[in-house]
């Protein structure tokens, strides 16, 4: 099923997904979900929809043997702390947390409730686990990607725009992953003859002012990291179109929404796999027996409509590599 089909299906049903739990458990189990997107974000609905669908396949039924409570912090660190506190008071059996800020907020409150995470770039560096292979705390889950993937975004932009000279990297300065991603991009920039500059994404006005300052020199492009696009995707896509800036994103949802091109892991797959870990933990498996896993599926999504608006053409070889091409 394509990502757009999942989102369409969710739109035809309800905002709050149905979830599911083993029929051999007589009591209702509690799952508390802390999401790093807004509640009405189509991407987020796809994530929780994939999570709920897989839970249902595993036998967990809302209202029968499981209760799921959701909070949405939309990439805001203060909101993450607030909603983490709310969820903790519900005394759930397990947390599902997406994004580094969300996991950090929960870990600051409890180290006893099992936590499955998704969309976390560096769980060891963030202090969530001591070892990827054998977590010995209360958390395990699924890495967003390794930092060296960030350099591939710059390589992709250079391939699309050979005369590229300057690239702005949009990142959330409050997110520890933002600095490491920028460092990875900066490391490959000299070999490509490109100067890279960070742009922080704390709010819409800051992003807009920074992009306006960046644009005039020409031969420029954007890299939009996952932490930046979490709460500002539509604005960033509009700014890129307005200023004719080629931009590469980390998630295919951004290309579907009008971004030029994206390359990154299949994020829906992360939430399906997270449901499997939640199921296994609720059935008695230990965190230490469930290693942190890297992505197994990566997707290249190209938006040809946006390319035409920017006056860009993709090589046949790049189009042939794409997992999805939007006409």
Write the layout of secondary structure elements.
Blueprint: H1 3-11, E1 29-35, H2 42-57, E2 66-72, H3 77-89, E3 94-98, H4 100-107, E4 115-120, E5 139-143, H5 149-160, E6 166-171, H6 176-192, E7 195-200, H7 204-214, E8 220-224, H8 226-242, E9 247-249, H9 252-256, E10 261-265, H10 267-282, E11 298-303, H11 304-310, H12 316-321, E12 324-326
Parallel strand pairs: 1-2, 1-3, 3-4, 4-5, 6-7, 6-8, 8-9, 9-10, 11-12
Antiparallel strand pairs: 10-11
Helix pairs in contact: 1-2, 2-10, 3-4, 5-6, 7-8
Molecular structure report:
This protein has 2 domains: 3-143 and 267-296, Response regulator (Rossmann fold); 149-264 and 299-326, Rossmann fold (3-Layer(aba) Sandwich), CATH 3.40.50. 42% of the residues lie in helices and 20% in strands. It has 12 helices and 12 strands. The strands form 2 sheets. A 7-stranded mixed beta sheet has the order 7-6-8-9-10-11-12, with helices on both faces. A 5-stranded parallel beta sheet has the order 2-1-3-4-5, sandwiched between helices. Helix 9 links the parallel strand 9 and strand 10. Helix 1 packs across helix 2 (42-57) and helix 3 (77-89) crosses helix 4. The radius of gyration is 20 Å and the shape is elongated. The chain starts with a helix and ends with a strand.
């Amino acid at each position: 099923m394509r990502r757009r089909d999942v989102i369409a299906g969710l739109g035809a049903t309800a905002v709050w997904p149905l979830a599911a739990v083993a029929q051999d458990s007589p009591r209702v189990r509690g799952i508390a979900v802390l999401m790093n997107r807004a509640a009405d974000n189509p991407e987020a609905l796809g994530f929780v929809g994939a999570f709920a669908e897989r839970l249902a396949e595993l036998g967990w039924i809302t209202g029968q043997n499981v209760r799921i409570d959701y909070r949405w912090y939309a990439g805001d660190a203060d909101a993450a702390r607030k909603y983490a506190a709310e969820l903790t008071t519900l005394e759930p059996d397990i947390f599902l947390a997406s994004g580094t800020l969300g996991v950090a907020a929960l870990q600051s409150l409890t180290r006893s409730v099992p936590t499955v995470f998704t969309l976390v770039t560096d769980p060891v560096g963030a202090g969530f686990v001591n070892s990827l292979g054998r977590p010995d705390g209360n958390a395990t889950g699924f890495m967003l990607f390794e930092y060296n993937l960030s350099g591939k975004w710059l390589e992709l932009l250079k391939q699309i725009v050979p005369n590229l000279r300057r690239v702005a990297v949009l990142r959330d300065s409050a997110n520890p992953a933002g600095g490491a991603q920028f460092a990875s991009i900066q490391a490959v920039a000299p070999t490509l003859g490109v100067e890279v500059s960070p742009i922080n994404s704390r709010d819409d006005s800051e992003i807009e002012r920074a992009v306006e300052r960046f644009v005039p020199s020409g031969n420029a492009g954007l890299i939009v990291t996952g932490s930046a696009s979490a709460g500002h995707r539509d604005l960033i896509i509009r700014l890129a179109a307005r200023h004719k800036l080629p931009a590469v994103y980390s998630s295919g949802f951004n290309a579907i929404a009008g971004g030029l091109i994206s390359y990154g892991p299949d994020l829906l797959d992360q939430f399906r796999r997270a449901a499997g870990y939640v199921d296994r933990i609720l059935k008695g498996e230990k965190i230490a027996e469930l290693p942190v896993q890297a992505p197994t599926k990566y997707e290249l999504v190209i938006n040809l409509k946006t390319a035409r608006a920017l006056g860009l053409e993709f090589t046949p070889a790049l189009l042939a590599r794409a997992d999805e091409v939007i006409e």
